[in-house]
Amino acid sequence: KRKYNTCLVTLKTTGATGELPGGDELIGDALTLVPGVTTIQEAMKSEEFRKKIEGAIAATNKDSLACPSNASKIQKFEILPRDFSVVGEEFTPTLKLKRKVVEAKYADVIEKMYA
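Given the sequence above, the corresponding structure tokens read:
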């Protein structure tokens, strides 16, 4: 297995319903997080956006209820270019995550986090 935990981050976009992945335009908290960053592509390239996510992960890692031990802490993350959806085959029709599908689909991104 792997030596530490990582996570794949998806951002809320216009048209994202769980059934559909949505577009590239951010909405909600994702849109207001960093002024001037309005798309997933911009968020993926923005160092400030990544720092905000790192800060949220660090805060969660420090919460003893969320992370009772070092083994449960997230060490690295990557922002994905699309939200998970049924159409993208990452979710079942009842919106359960298909872990094996996600692992296969984003194998290169996952490997990069462990490189």
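The chain has five helices and two strands. Try to locate this feature in the token string yourself.
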